[in-house]
Every structure is written in structure tokens, then in C-alpha cells.
Specification:
This protein has 133 residues and is an all-alpha fold. Helix content is 94%, strand content 0%. It contains four helices and no strands. The protein is flat and about 70 Å long. The N and C termini lie far apart (65 Å).
Length: 133
Amino acid sequence: MCLGFAALFAVGSVANAGRIWFIQSASQRVVKDLRLDVYESLLRNDMNFFDHNTSGELINRLSADCQLVGDVLTQNVSDILRSIGQSAVSIGLMIYVAPDLALRVAAIVPSIMIVAFCAGKFVRSFPKTSKTT
């Protein structure tokens, strides 16, 4: 039993490392293509554009913004994929272990989500009304 859990954790860690590697490589390729496209777009501008904007400022923005896009892609896409996988496995295990309980949870969770969404909208309206008075 202990060896089974150790093997499961080993497979999980290898899968996690693979996920991170694939997401980072895809993100780096997207950032490279984005930088090339933006740089080519900058080169197609007329000289009047460069009279109003310094080339150092444009290159700095190009580099910083592309890096920000890469960071967002790496972190958020990875988190979304991990969450989807965990949710699918969790729901599958719930259905396998206790189908009647899973059905009850499936009936209750959407109503809780709707109440939380409405409460969040209500609470967000407070600062707007207090600033206007």
C-alpha cells in the first residue's frame, strides 16, 4: 500500500514537471512570435511616428509587455489546466464512491454559486453609492 502511494506521488510529480515544461515552452514560442510580429509592425510605421515616440521607449515597452504576456500565459494557463484536471478527477471519484451524494452536491452547488454571485454584486455596489453621497 505504501509503495502504491509512493508510485502515485512519483507519477504525479513527473506529470506536474511535464505540464510545467510544456506550458513554458508553448509560452516562450508565443512570446517569440508576438515579439516578432510587433517588431515588424513597428518597422512598417512611417518616420513621423518615430518623431513622436522614441525608439528606446518603444523597444522597452515591446520587451516589457511581451514578457508580461508570457508570464500571464505561463501562470494562468497552467493554473487553469491544473484546476480543470483536478476538478474532473474529483468529480469522477465522487461519482464512483458515492453517486447519490454526488447528485445532491450537483444540485446544491449551483444555487450556492448564484447566491454568492448576487451577494458579490451587492457588496461591490456599496463603494459606488457611498462615494456619490
